[in-house]
C-alpha cells in the first residue's frame, strides 16, 4: 500500500515537474542578487503572527521537535509556530508542489537533502541568505559542510537542520571471534574487505545495504567530484564526472566485497531495508554501514537485553584510502522559507529558524534524535557532553563531519533529478553485483544513464 | 434392438467387464482431474492468503519476534494490545471516519449518476447520443494524475479545500460506471420496456422497478469497485487536504503510522489490518453479487 502511494506521489511529482517547464530559469549565474528579507514586516505587524511548519519527523524526533518549537512559542509572544506532520519526505514534496498550484503552502518546510535543486527550480522559496544578510546573522559557529550543503552559487538557500551521515556499525564480539582487534574497526574500504574475509571465515559476515549514495560518499572521501560544475555548486550540473580511476576503484572494491561472497546485500527500501542492521542483532553480520540517524534505535534495541551475543561498536565510515584527504558529505534535511506567504510570515519563519538552529536547540535536537549538532558550540553544552559520554558512537558521526577537507567535492552534490540519478547508479551497481557487468562497464553505463537523466531534466526545465 | 440383445446375450461378461472397466477408468480419470484441480486451487489459495496470514500473525507478535529467524508462523502469545496502540497512537478512528464519509458519498453519487446516465444511453433517443457516449468513454483514457492539478485549483477556488465535499467532488461520476450500467441495461429485452410502457410505466418507474433490479449484479459490482477505489485513494486526499488540521484519510493515516512506528512494524501492521476491516465486511456481503457480475454473460 505504501509503495503504491509512493509511486502515485512520484507520478504526481513528475507531472508537476513537467508543468514547471514554462518557468524561465536562470542557469549558472554566479552569486545572483538575492531578494530582500522582509524583516520590518514582522516588527510592523500587530498581534501574533501564526505560521505553519511542514515536517515529517517520527517518534522521538517528532517529540523533540515539538519540545523545541513549544520552547520557541513560549519564549516570545510575537510569533506562534504550528507543526504540521506529513507522512514522509516524499509526501511533503508531493503536497508542496501541488500546493504551488492552489496556494495551500506552509511558511516553512523541511525538505530532504536531494531536493535542493528541485526546490530552487520551483522559484517559490526565499533564500535564507537574504535574511542572513539582513539580520547580520553569524554562521561562523556552524560546521562548514552542512552549511555548504545548502549553499548553491554562493547563496545559502536553506538552513541545515536534521543532519546525519553514514557510520560503521560492528559487533565487537564477532571481531574478537574472527581474531580481529575489537577496538580497531576498518578505517578504509580495503581494510573493510580484509576484515570481511576474516569475519566470513569465522562464521559471521558483512551486510551491505544497497544505498544509492555509496559511490558519491566514497568519491567524497577521496576528494573527487560526482557531477560537473563543482558538484552543481558553481553552475547547474549537466553531467556526471565519476567514470574515473577513483570511480573504478570504488566499484571494483565493492564488487570484490560482494562477488567474493564476503558481504551480503539487501535493498534500501521495502520490507528488507533493515536486514543489514537486524543482521548485526541476530549475529549473522559482524559489520555494516548505515546512517548515523539509526544509532538511537539500534542502541535501544541492543540494550533491551535480547541480544546477548552482540556488543555494539561504532567506527568512522571506512574511507577509500588513508593516503587521500577528503571528507564525508553530510546528508539529512534542511528548512526552507516559502516566498509565497505574506512578508510578516517570512520574517517570522526566519526568527523561528534562528531558534531551532541555536546552540541549545541543536544540543537538545542531537540528544533527542541522534542527528548531529551542526554548531560547534553545541558540543560544549552539558547536554551533548553527557550524550557523548553515554553513547560515544554519536561523537564519531560528528567528528567525521567536522574533520577532513571542506570543498565542493566533500559538500555533496546539487542535481535536479537527484533521486533518478541515484537510481541509475544503483541499477548499475546491481548489474555489477549480479555478475552481468564488469565494474568498469557498470561504471561507464552508470555515467551514461546519469547524463541522460540530468540532460532530460534540464531540457524539460528549459535550462539545458 | 434384437441384434443388440443377441450381442449382449452372447457375451454378457465381457460387456459388463468392459463397461465396468470403462466406468472405472472414467471415475479414475475424474478423480485425477479433481485431485489436480484441487491441488492447483489449494496452491493458488495459499499464494493469495499467505501474505494476509503473515500480516495478521506479525501484527500479533512482539516487537523483537518479527526479526526472529525462522519467522514464527503462529502467534502463541497474541499481543492484542498492538491493535489498541495502533488505534489510539495512530488516531485511526479519526482517519477511518474521514475515509468512510468520503467513500460513502462517492459510492452513492457514482451509483446515482451511473444509473441515470447509463439508462439514458441505453433507452432514450436524443441527438448526439453516440458522440456523448464516446466522450464518456474517452474519460476512461485520461489518468487522474493528468487532471488532478486542474481539479485541485478548481476545488480550492470553490472554497472546498480540506472539506469532505472537496475530497469527494472529483469522483461523483465516472465513465466506467456509465459504460458498465449502459451495457447491463442493453441486456434487458426491448419487449419488456414496451410491455411496461403499455402498463403505463414512465421512464422513472420503469428504471426503478424493472431496469435497476434486473441489472442488480452490475450495480452491486459498480458499488463495490467504487468503494474499493475511493477507500484506497492516496494522492487526492494527500493534496486536497491541509491547514493545521488536515482531513486526512485512512491510507495517509496508515503511512503516518508506519512512519511513526518504523521500529514497531507489528503496530503498523495492526493498523493496516484495522484499515482493511471495512473492505473485508463489504466483500463478504457482496461476494455473491460480485462473482455473479464477473461471470455474467459467460454462459450466454
Structure write-up:
The complex is a heterodimer of chains A (464) and B (300). By secondary structure, chain A is of the alpha/beta class. Chain A has helices at 2-19, 39-44, 59-75, 89-102, 116-121, 128-134, 144-149, 172-177, 189-201, 214-221, 228-232, 245-259, 275-282, 295-302, 343-356, 359-369, 382-390, 393-402, 418-433, 439-461; strands spanning 49-55, 79-85, 108-112, 125-126, 151-152, 155-156, 159-164, 166-171, 206-210, 263-267, 287-291, 312-315, 331-338. Helix content of chain A is 47%, strand content 14%. Chain B is flat, with a radius of gyration of 28 Å. With 300 residues, chain B is mainly alpha-helical. Helix content of chain B is 75%, strand content 0%. Chains A and B meet through helix 1, strand 2, helix 4, helix 13 and helix 14 of A and helix 6, helix 12 and helix 13 of B.
Helix-strand blueprint:
The complex is a heterodimer of chains A (464) and B (300).
Chain A: H1 2-19, H2 39-44, E1 49-55, H3 59-75, E2 79-85, H4 89-102, E3 108-112, H5 116-121, E4 125-126, H6 128-134, H7 144-149, E5 151-152, E6 155-156, E7 159-164, E8 166-171, H8 172-177, H9 189-201, E9 206-210, H10 214-221, H11 228-232, H12 245-259, E10 263-267, H13 275-282, E11 287-291, H14 295-302, E12 312-315, E13 331-338, H15 343-356, H16 359-369, H17 382-390, H18 393-402, H19 418-433, H20 439-461
Parallel strand pairs in A: 1-2, 1-3, 9-10, 9-11
Antiparallel strand pairs in A: 3-13, 4-13, 5-6, 7-13, 8-11, 8-12
Chain B: H1 2-10, H2 12-59, H3 81-89, H4 92-123, H5 129-138, H6 144-157, H7 164-168, H8 175-186, H9 190-198, H10 203-214, H11 216-231, H12 235-240, H13 250-260, H14 265-295
Helix pairs in contact in B: 2-14, 3-14, 4-8, 4-11, 4-13, 5-8, 11-14, 13-14
